[in-house]
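My main concern about presentation is that the manuscript never shows what a single data entry looks like. In essence, backbone conformation is discretised, so a fold becomes a row of integers matching the chain in length. An entry of this sort, consisting of the sequence and the corresponding backbone structure tokens, reads as follows:
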Amino acid sequence: MAQPEYVVIRAQEDGVNVIGLTRGNDTKFHHTEKLDKGEVMIAQFTEHTSAMKIRGKAEIHSAHGIIESEAKK
């Protein structure tokens, strides 16, 4: 794998879930974190992590720009 890509997730509400998904034939959850408002997590895509799911209102910063996720329903 070349340079791993990092993302920065900043929670804009309590209870934002960050879920890491595995790489390979079967995609599975392999790690979860819960962030409260104002907390920041720096995450990286690795040989084991191919995707991340963000549930809740958060700002996600990456090399591709900034995206805001919607509030939890």
